[in-house]
Amino acid sequence: MIFLRTHEADPDEVYRFLTRLVVPRPIAWISTVSPEGIKNLAPFSFFNAVCDEPPIVIVSISRRDDGRRKDTTDNILRTGEFVINLVSEELIDKVELTSEEFPPQVDEFMVAGLTPTESFCVKAPSVKEAKAWLECKLFKHEELFSYDLIFGLVLCIRAENLDYEHLKPVGRLSGRYCRLTEINTRAYSG
Q: Any coiled-coil ranges, and where (predicted)?
């Protein structure tokens, strides 16, 4: 039996337990653009859908060690727009590259060799190599401890198709990735 009193534990240990038990976590590969026109791309696995009427998603973005906001958060708060690009199996290496911390003037699309493409409903670019996209407008921002909670109103949903065998979505299991294409035939109605 494993027992952890979170208020007494090291924060790294709490993180390790949470990310091993809240699984699989979807990945929001968020693309933004600064008011100055610099493109940004970074993955976040504290992400999920909140409701469908209206369609709202949430992403929790931690602050840097020195307390400053990450470029993704800055861009969203300054422009009010972002795109969540679906992460498929063949893009994992590119996602890893874009998870590194770069200065604000660095274009992660260029670093990862990805193609920014024009979005339909927002100014933030989409990742052309992705297979599905949620174009979002900032609905609400909340500060929670050293995190920025970004609620996005989904303005536009695009996908090559909705077949999981084609989309090949991945999630996070602790620090690793997992495939999500094995479907159980039992349906859950909740």
A: none
